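Structure ticket #2291
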Amino acid sequence: MGMRIDSSYNNYPVNTSTQIDTARKTANDELSYLQDKFKDYSFVAANFKQGMRYGSNATTNVAISPQFLKKMANDPKLAEEYEKEIANMKSCDQWCRANISARGDKLVADGWAIDKDGGISRWSIGTHDDRTARVKSPTEYANELYERKKEKGRIVLKSRTNTVKNKPAARFDRKA
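Resolution: structure written out below.
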C-alpha cells in the first residue's frame, strides 16, 4: 500500500504588537542591558572627567559615554567587542588592587571610563604611607646591612695579602 505525503504552508496572521522586541535602541537600553549582564559591576552613563568619582570599592566601576552607549546599542558587533573588554576589567581590577596593597598602599576608589570614541582608561585614588617612602641609596642600604650583620656576629674580618700588589686587603667572610 502506498503512502502519500502532502505539505501545506499556511500563512497565519501574526500579531506583531504582542511580540517582544529584544533590540536595544537607546543608551538607557544598553546601560540596563549591561547592568543585567554584569551583576557585580557598577555602570554609569557619563562623560568622564578627571576627579570624577562613582561606584563603590566593592564593585568594578565603569563610566560609559552616553554617545558611545548609543553606538553600542545600534551596532551588535561593537557591543560584543566591548562586552569582552568589560568582562576583562574585573580581573584587571583584582590584579591592580593586589599590587597596590602589596606596596603597603591603600586603595580608596577606582574605576574605568569609556569615552565617546571608545577609548578605555582606568583610574584609581589611593593613599600612601610615608614611612615606606624613605628609600635609601644602594650604598646606604648595603652599609646598614653590613652593620646589622656585624652586630649580630655574622661577619668576621680577615686579613690577607693581595698577591698582585703585595698589599694587605680586607676580606669579608660569612660565618656558617
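Closing remark: The chain has two domains: 23-128, 135-174.
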